[in-house]
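look at this one:
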Amino acid sequence: MTTQTHDTRSPLVWVTLPIVYVVWGSTYLGIHFVVETMPPMVSAAIRFLTASIVLAAVLVILRGPSVLRVPWRRLGTAALVGVLLLTGGNGMVGVAEQHISTGLAALLVASVPLWLVIFRWSTGDRPAAATIGGVLVGFGGLALLTLTRGGGSGDATGVVVILIASLSWSIGSFLSSRLPMPENPFTASVYEMAAGGLALFVFGFGRGETLHLDAVSRASWLGLAYLIVFGSLVAFTSYVWLLGNAPISLVGTYAYVNPGVAVLLGVAFAGEHATWTILAGGLIIIAGVGLVVSTERRSRTEAPPEPSAGGEKAVEPAGQDRAR
């Protein structure tokens, strides 16, 4: 076993990170159109189960059935992370968007980096002062939006739900970098989306959600298709890859950039209004990303790990050994 820090100089980091930044920012608008005529948790279940089946089929075609074989322990942790990320996280976003605007939802998700830094601190990992400062700046904007409910862009129920979703997503993100996960990040995505989708069905039907196909609008179908292809297959797999190949605090900075994209798209395509409170809170939140990103990019990286027995280089979570 080896211990190393992630090398954020990898070109793929700076390709996948912008995908998560921009595409996930647009998914808030996609969710907005979906939940207009479809129940939030059941529609999210369809989204993630469909994406998991498609991704699994592609992996089997390209790599063979063995790519989906993982030890039971790693399968279990992937399922746990999937439930935290997609059921408690993404599913709750859909519920919240029935009560608040897309821009406010995205801005409130900016609490994710704060939780991640707190979790890191609790395990003995001491982030740089600039990283902490960036998160605190973002939290200042978050507090402004929470206390004012975005200047009237939502109600208290939506605010509470989205903050719970952020906490669930943060826990899932943190655990995925600490627990033994499937070695192939795309295989991990398959099982995470499958577990999250199944749990969403259970919770959706449990809260009385029903899907009436004849009542679903064209906009909702198009929104669901966009979420499956771009939100899940493209952006979520990029996020999973980043969790194993970049510092967790750098990955978490997507929460600062998504709001700007979400607010602009909400105003342009959903008839939402960008109140002065949303603009002020958004600017404060986004200002924190510069501190966090610049600090993480300056982080020192150690020598590449030695090849494993199979001849491939193993990727280790930052600051800890990865179980073999």
Q: What stands out?
A: The chain has twelve helices and no strands. The first helix runs from residue 13 to 37.
